[in-house]
Amino acid sequence: MRYAAAYLLSLIGGNPSPSLQSISTILSSVGIVCDEQKAYNVIQACQGKNVNEIIEQGLVKLESMSTVTTGVAVPLLPGPYLPPVSPPISRQSSVSSTGSGVGDLFGDG
To answer: Low complexity: which segments have biased composition (predicted)?
Structure first.
């Protein structure tokens, strides 16, 4: 996915034909070592397509992957993903007020 994202960034940035070098430059700017074969595969798959076509085909692939891997179709919703919020965990101290237990590990108190 990172190679497709780098290709799209290059395309959106005004490069009508992103190359291996442009993808490698984008990936290395965020500390990712470029695998030339993966980058080449993305270039071949996306060559001659505009941004909308690439994104449309990618969404179709993502939808098919979600039904295969989970068995449940997950619709792609617009907007940010918000994970479910769990209630905070209350912790009760296991150290007694007399200084024994974990709090008095080294005998200071």
So the answer is: 88-99
* CATH code reported for the domain at 2-70: 1.10.10.1410
Contacts of 41 (CB under 8 A, 6+ apart): 3
Domain ranges of the chain: 2-70
Q: What is the pLDDT of residues 43-65, one digit of tens each?
A: 999 999 999 999 898 888 888 87
Extended strands (E) in the chain: none
Sign of the C-alpha dihedral, residues 19, 58, 36, 8? positive
Q: How far apart are CA 12 and CA 7, in angstroms?
A: 9
